[in-house]
Amino acid sequence: MNFIKFLGTAGARFVMIKQLRASGGIWFEINDTRMIVDPGPGALVRVNKSRPSLKVSHLDAIFVSHKHIDHTNDVNVMIEAMTDGGFNKKGIVLCPSEAIENTPVIFPYAAALVDKVITLSTAAQYQIKNLKLKIPVRLHHQTETYGFILQSDHVPSIGYIPDTAFFPEIISAYANTDIIIINVVFTQPRPLIMHLSLPEALDIISGIKPKKAILTHFGLTMLKERIWEKTQYLSEKLATDIIAASDGMTVEL
Ligand SMILES: [Zn+2]
To answer: How far is residue 16's CA from residue 219's CA, in Å, rounded to a whole number?
Structure first.
């Protein structure tokens, strides 16, 4: 089965710190290729508690969009899990160069356990077993940040837009993506904090016109306003299937 599983949907600091939502990142399992994305605090716990089980030692790649702790806290322990405690050197880590420079969030000892550490750059394209991963654009966040577009045989293309301020080029960069996953922290724009708000995310969805849009990485305002109760209205308004991710949610492809 090809699927995406949300091991966490926490966005802003307090949602993460209080674990109002889990912060384990997103697991992709497509055409026998397994990749975890942004393994924040609790990723290892969420992976091991998943039912049906996720085969952590079968991971092929770990993708880190940027070095903030809600996206990287468990990255080193996930590398240990992917490599059978370091006894089986394998797998790829993809991350911005800032994640391995001073001060690195991916420890040098952990980086040495994997086959390859790839530092991401715009317009680059990488092959991860049966997945093609493209970096469409550098995003606008406090630290070096990239999302991706995934392509593989017989499955829809999947775009991931992690933490970023809004800028119009996001729309052209992710054009023609079938499924788009967007980190939406606020209900209203807060220009000084480089995160997407719901109106900005809806502008992106209207521009890209994907078959499905999945909102995740929620801040407190998104939870207080119970975003999951509004997605049907938003879907009708934009004539696009929009869903709000929940912890443990699996989307079959
Ligand atoms: Zn961030």
So the answer is: 9
